[in-house]
Amino acid sequence: MAGSGLVTGTWILITLYAGVILFFVVRGARGIKSISDYAVGSVIFSPAAVGLSLAASMTSAATFVINPGLIANFGWSGFISFGIFFPLGAVISLFILTKSFRKYGQTTKALTLAQWIGSRYNSKGYSLLMAFLSLLLITFIVLIVVALTKVLSKALDIQEIYVLVTIVVFIFGYMMFGGANSMVYTNTIQALIMVVVAVILLTSGFEHFANGISGFFDKLAAINPALTESTNPASPLFRDYFEIIVAQFIVGFAVVCQPHIITKSLLLKEEKDVNRYLLVGIIVEILFFLVVFAGLYARLTFPDLMAGGEALKSDGIIPAYVVEVFQGDGFSVAVGLIVILGLIAAGMSTLEGLIQSLSSTITTDIIKPLFGKNFKTDASMIAVNKVTIIVLAVVSIFISYDQIVNPKLSVAILAQNGVYAYFTAAFIPILFGIFIKDVDVKAPLAATITALVVHFGVYYFLPVLVENGMSFGFYTKYLQGVVRNPAIASSTGIVISTIVGLSVHYFTKDKMKNESV
């Protein structure tokens, strides 16, 4: 339970923070004259600011709150997976894909990822398909809402349901007005706060290194030797090197193919700004990804994963750690308040990007194509976008509450299953659209459909076959248990859909060359 000083300080802090956020929302909203302004902004931002916005959007509450909880449960193997190989794939992908994606996005005036794909392959149907698939990103919204709820309910000592509703009403409420303009302002502030908090969290357990690195690992081994191993066969997520390294690198490489990440470069107005944008974004992202190491500090603080006589759920470990470590004298409480602010910022930064990109996609790529004759003016489209955000808020509250009450290990499993399915389906159309000049729409479309079938087939259908006695060799272990790793389903879907997409392209490329002559 949080002390009275921390509770009072948190109330003051979030009140001030909310005031600052609303100031920038009002400032950004003044420039919103159309749905285009909402989606990609009407203000010219510095590449450093957009880079910070990218880092804040890409490394969210999952990185600062949820994933460290999994590492607290399963140890060093989790850090190798989430702290090294997932980020490595993401950074390499961001560097490779950004420039080409932005260049084509600028020429087509694309506002969303679905529009980019539809324009690239001259297919309204494909654009509509990707727009509907973007609804899977609601699961990521739920993850962040749950993480914020856990942090604030602990810090304020309030029941989770009240915090949940307040968070959703506030953040979704102001995102109805600000859009991309206010998002870059707020993301920049949030990223700067997150930088400070990342350093605090990474240094918060330095006393555990009093006897060196070996002494640190000895402490973990005393709790459970599996916590110090590079693989954890008893875990559902980090059992071997294929799961920890190969699958996570593939997923990390594809994770960039989310609308709130890859479309961030469209906020840049000049081509010369891209390098600085990438440099700032990547450096800050690497720092943020390393924060998951704090999960090991949390396990040393709660060896039996108990706090106050109650078992800690995975998603509540880091909030409990912050409350436990940063209490006491005034200085500790002050540092704790900064950390709480950073955890809030980590969640809100990505949540803003998701709300902005998902509502824009639903409005411009689903509602407008299907019902556009009823909404012909910019004012009507902006009004539709606001209603869309309200609907998303209501849905998010119901799903988030269920995840708080009935989690399956962690809300991360739900979020990963939904988000991974989306970018698994989007990976090949983006890759082919960037690097293959003449490509028939049949190739990426076949890859997208294959990716979806394989991802959900591996996650839901193959485990049923295993339960009925079928074996898939070494792969069988990934299909067993109540909790299964979405990275296995996603990485398998990416590999197989890539093979299918390349195969279809091989048989259709001559036709495309003849048509382009």
Describe this structure in words.
There is one protein chain. The chain has a single domain, classed as Sodium/glucose cotransporter (Up-down Bundle), CATH 1.20.1730.10. It is globular, with a radius of gyration of 23 Å. The protein has helices at residues 4-29, 35-40, 47-58, 61-74, 76-108, 113-120, 124-133, 138-156, 160-175, 179-203, 212-223, 241-254, 259-262, 274-289, 294-301, 317-325, 330-371, 378-405, 411-435, 442-467, 486-516; strands at residues 306-307, 310-311. It starts with a helix and ends with a helix. The protein has 517 residues and is an all-alpha fold. The protein has a two-stranded antiparallel sheet. It is built from 21 helices and two strands.
Shape: globular
Class in CATH? Mainly Alpha
**Overall CATH architecture:** Up-down Bundle
Beta-strand percentage range: under 5%
> What is the name of the CATH superfamily?
Sodium/glucose cotransporter
Outline:
With 517 residues, the chain is mainly α. It has helices spanning 4-29, 35-40, 47-58, 61-74, 76-108, 113-120, 124-133, 138-156, 160-175, 179-203, 212-223, 241-254, 259-262, 274-289, 294-301, 317-325, 330-371, 378-405, 411-435, 442-467, 486-516, and strands spanning 306-307, 310-311. Helices cover 74% and strands 1% of the residues.
